């Protein structure tokens, strides 16, 4: 699986409330959640980002509560992947459960700047920075996890098996 898009950069400890503020959790409609994605971290983000963009973040992305709304909001907004130094464990699992690819790479996070065009190969973990002509390594997504992403998440993967 190859992903290609423009990047948005965020810092350390972006919690689930910054990803989707709690005041919008009166709905679980993905399209409604997408309208408010990352707005507490960057109020204009929902209007600036475009489908296919990717988020680059420092350490501990997705910390905080265990709500699935955070990766759902990201995916529904059109964010196709998140690259961070590290992820909160429950966010990591929830992301794959709903089919949002995430990658860990200290090197990529250190060198990618906001607005860079990048290409991510999920099979081998190679991240190409097209804007800078550089390559970085991320942990590749295991084949089973790629199956979950391709199916649209754990529920859809399970439905295909029944």
Concise summary:
The chain has 162 residues and is of the alpha/beta class. Helices cover 34% and strands 20% of the residues.
**Strand proportion:** 15-25%
Order of helices and strands: EHHHEHEHEHEEEHH
End-to-end separation = 25 Å
Helix content: 25-40%
Sketch the major β-sheet. 7 strands, mixed
Continuous helix count: 8
Radius of gyration: 15 Å
Number of strands: 7
What general outline do the C-alpha atoms trace? globular
Low-confidence stretches: none
In round numbers, the mean pLDDT is: 92
Structure class = alpha/beta
Strand arrangement in the largest pleated sheet: 4-3-2-1-5-6-7
Question: Keywords for this structure?
Answer:
alpha/beta, 8 helices, globular, 162 residues, 7-stranded mixed sheet
């Amino acid at each position: 699986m190859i992903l290609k898009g423009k990047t948005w950069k965020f810092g350390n400890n972006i919690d689930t409330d910054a990803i989707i503020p709690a005041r919008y959790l009166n709905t679980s409609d993905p399209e409604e959640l997408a309208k408010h994605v990352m707005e507490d971290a960057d109020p204009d983000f929902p209007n600036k980002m475009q489908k296919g963009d990717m988020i680059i973040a420092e350490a501990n992305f997705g910390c905080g509560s265990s709500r699935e709304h955070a990766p759902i909001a990201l995916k529904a907004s059109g964010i196709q992947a998140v690259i961070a130094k590290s992820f909160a464990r429950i966010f990591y699992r929830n992301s794959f459960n709903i089919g949002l690819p995430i990658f860990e790479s200290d090197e990529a996070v250190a060198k990618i700047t906001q607005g860079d065009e990048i290409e991510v190969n999920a099979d081998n973990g190679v991240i190409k920075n097209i804007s800078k002509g550089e390559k970085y390594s991320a942990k590749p997504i295991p084949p089973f996890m790629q199956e979950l992403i391709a199916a649209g998440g754990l529920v859809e993967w399970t439905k295909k098996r029944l």
